[in-house]
Specification:
alpha/beta, Alkaline Phosphatase, subunit A, three-stranded parallel beta sheet, two-stranded antiparallel sheet
Length: 231
């Protein structure tokens, strides 16, 4: 069964031209354990991050550390979530990096600029959006008085489905793309590099600008709050 909510021509091209792992399996269904596996190559039982809110020790060796020792410039742009977003900045470096105007190094990455799929008050993208308070207020509110991830904004009532009137240039996923292009433009052509890009979309599942939803509908994709299924 295939659910196709929107066009993804660039991703399809990467899949067609690159390596497509057809039997890849995620090590965990929630974010922090999966993120820890990505940067260590270890199973959840080895790195110990078994749920969101459990942070891997900062001194733990990562793939980024290994690549750094072999001469690679390393960067992570976008969603890191190796440390709990709602934790105190006093306890977790990710939660105070932007406040300290720092971009690393951290966990083996020379350069980090962070963006999450909601605004918690301390990511680099969050600080960037402080100049646009009215637009910032239109993004999906992950934490409300009902708890986390409890609301939606369509006729179906589906949780996290949140179309919003946000110009593309201020959308958090576009911010990651812009910061990626800026970082790549600073790299020397003969210097090896590894870049981990983690875009906030598609979490929440349809928290995207209305203009993009309209484009997807014109391209034959499903409108927000509905699903096309092919079996």
């Amino acid at each position: 069964m295939v659910d196709r909510l929107q066009t993804q021509k660039n991703i399809d091209k990467l899949s067609a031209d690159g390596i497509n792992s057809r039997r890849a399996h995620n090590q965990n269904v929630v974010c922090m354990p999966a993120q820890a596996t990505i940067i260590t190559g270890q199973h959840v039982g080895s790195h110990g991050v078994w749920m969101n809110g459990v942070s891997m020790p900062e001194e733990r060796h990562t793939v980024a550390h290994h690549l750094k020792t072999h001469g690679y410039n390393t960067a992570l742009l976008g969603k890191a979530h190796f440390e709990p977003w709602l934790g105190s900045p006093d306890d977790f470096f990710e939660n105070r990096m932007a406040l300290e105007e720092s971009t690393g190094p951290h966990r083996g990455f020379d350069h980090m600029e962070l963006a999450n799929h909601f605004f918690e008050g301390h990511s680099h993208c969050d600080r960037f959006m402080e100049a646009y308070p009215e637009t910032k207020a239109r993004f999906y509110p992950m934490v409300t008085n009902k708890g986390q991830n409890t609301i939606g904004k369509t006729g179906t009532g589906a949780i996290q489905v949140w179309p919003m009137d946000v110009p593309r240039e201020l959308y958090h996923t576009q911010w990651v793309a812009d910061r990626t292009k800026a970082w790549l433009s600073e790299q020397k052509a003969d210097s090896p590099l590894v870049l981990l890009d983690e875009f906030p979309r598609p979490a929440p599942s349809l928290g995207c600008p209305r203009v993009r939803i309209a484009q997807d509908q014109l391209a034959g994709s499903s409108p927000a709050g509905t699903v096309q299924r092919k079996t």
